[in-house]
Amino acid sequence: MSRMHYSHWYGRPNDRLKLPVEGGFALRIFLCFAMAYFMSYAFRTINVVIAPDLVRDLQISNADLGLLSSAYFVGFGMTQIPLGLALDRFGPRITEAWVMTLAVIGAIIFALAENFNTLVIARILIGMGVSACLMAAFSGFRAWYAPSQQGQLASAMLVFGTSGALASTWPVHLVTPYIGWRGVFLVLAGLSFLAILILYFGLPVRKQYQQNRQHQQHQHINNEVSGSHANL
Question: Domain 23-224: which topology?
Answer without folding.
Answer: Growth Hormone; Chain: A; (1.20.1250)
